[in-house]
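[[Encoded backbone]]
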Amino acid sequence: MQSLSQAVKTSLPNYLSSLPVPDTFGGWFKLSFKDWLALIPPTAVVVGLGYVSYRAFCPEAHRKCKSGSGLCNDHIRKHEAKVVDMVDIENIADKAAFCRCWKTKNWPYCDGSHAEHNKNTGDNVGPIVVKK
């Protein structure tokens, strides 16, 4: 516990005060290569903490589809204004699972692609199951 206390109270402030941070904007252009290398570790720590904070406090921001566009349907009948399918209940078996995540390769039937979609996005979508 003393070593942690020593690091926080003495070593960390000494390390930060020894960093080559210029006093003026123009001073950034006068830094040497060695000075820039010394700034990489604290910059990486600040960026890492910022990213972890972003993920913790903004959970909805990373729940978009993997493509990042916000579109769910990224490949099924894109030439149509709206994809609508009619399935006669007489033409299905005792039970059929229909896709709701738009990731299936066997449209309109579910092939389990929602599992990967849910893992990548944090979503919880599943198929709609119709029984006779």
